[in-house]
């Protein structure tokens, strides 16, 4: 639809109606990050109309074939639905949070909370997830591969066990946390399998003091300077025993 370069090296290439409505209405925010010599996509949307994601990536001046990795934040359908397609069509290496990798490989919709979310109307009644066996798994700690250096954090609580990605692109520190924290320092807690408010609080408090420029959440608006304030707000609420929802 439009070129969506956010800052040097970061492009918003997918976003649904809970964002800026760039691609399919049910897509999460999907970010393309241009590391030194390597391209990586973070989350890939629901997979109903992946051609819209491809068109955005091409409009931003990139070729699908040049994307090395797809890093997934957590295994909810609106974040991972296009993974199998992108892996098959373009050989993009899919990196799945380790805790959720087996459920995604089996297409276990119950374990990933997709069946109850579909019943609740979040997904179309005929929507089914395309299962995908990841090429690699993501675990908390340092990711150092192919010139991509990031620190990965546990993002349990929103889902069974997601991952947040913290790194640097063209001199700016980014935080891609999926649905862990949204703008306004709010969390996204749903009554679905895998959700755990105590785990959620622990994970948010673990990242609340990170130095972050680019706050790039899975839905809604993003923040391009001092983005760490969003994490701090959520963390401080938990510290005061409130749920920042
Ligand atoms: Fe989610």
Tell me the name of the CATH homologous superfamily: Ribonuclease Z/Hydroxyacylglutathione hydrolase-like
The main sheet comes to: 7 strands, mixed
Shape: globular
- Name the bound molecules: fe (ii) ion
- Strand tally: 12
Query: Given this structure, which CATH class is correct?
Result: Alpha Beta
CATH topology: Metallo-beta-lactamase, Chain A
**Which architecture name does CATH use?**
4-Layer Sandwich
Q: How much helix, percentage-wise, in residues?
A: 10-25%
Rounded Rg: 16 Å
Low-confidence stretches: none
Fold topology:
Elements: E1 5-7, E2 10-14, E3 30-35, E4 38-42, H1 50-59, E5 67-71, H2 77-80, H3 83-90, E6 93-97, H4 98-106, H5 114-119, E7 136-138, E8 141-145, E9 148-155, E10 162-169, E11 172-176, H6 197-207, E12 214-215, H7 228-239
Parallel strand pairs: 4-5, 5-6, 6-7, 11-12
Antiparallel strand pairs: 1-2, 2-3, 3-4, 8-9, 9-10, 10-11
Bound molecules: fe (ii) ion (FE2).
Domain Metallo-beta-lactamase: 27-219
Protein name: Glyoxylase, beta-lactamase superfamily II
Organism: Lactonifactor longoviformis DSM 17459
């Amino acid at each position: 639809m439009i070129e969506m370069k956010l800052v040097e090296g970061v492009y918003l290439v997918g976003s649904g109606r809970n964002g800026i409505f760039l691609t399919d209405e049910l897509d999460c925010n999907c970010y393309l990050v241009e590391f030194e010599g390597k391209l990586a996509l973070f989350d890939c949307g629901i997979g109903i109309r992946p051609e819209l994601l491809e068109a955005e990536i091409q409009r931003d001046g990139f070729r699908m074939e040049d994307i090395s990795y797809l890093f997934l934040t957590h295994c909810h359908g609106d974040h991972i639905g296009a993974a199998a397609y992108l892996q098959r069509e373009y050989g993009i290496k899919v990196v799945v949070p380790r805790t959720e990798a087996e459920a995604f490989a089996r297409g276990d919709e119950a374990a990933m909370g997709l069946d109850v979310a579909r019943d609740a109307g979040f997904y179309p009644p005929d929507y089914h997830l395309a299962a995908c066996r990841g090429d690699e798994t993501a675990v908390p700690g340092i990711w150092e591969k192919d010139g991509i250096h990031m620190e990965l954090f546990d993002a349990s609580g929103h889902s069974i066990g997601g991952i947040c990605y913290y790194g640097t692109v063209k001199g700016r520190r980014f935080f891609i946390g999926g649905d862990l924290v949204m703008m306004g320092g709010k969390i996204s807690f749903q009554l679905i399998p895998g959700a755990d408010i105590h785990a959620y609080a622990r994970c948010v408090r673990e990242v609340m003091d990170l130095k972050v420029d680019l706050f790039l959440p899975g839905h809604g608006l993003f923040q391009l300077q001092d983005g760490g304030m969003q994490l701090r707000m959520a963390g401080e609420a938990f510290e005061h025993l409130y749920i920042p929802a």
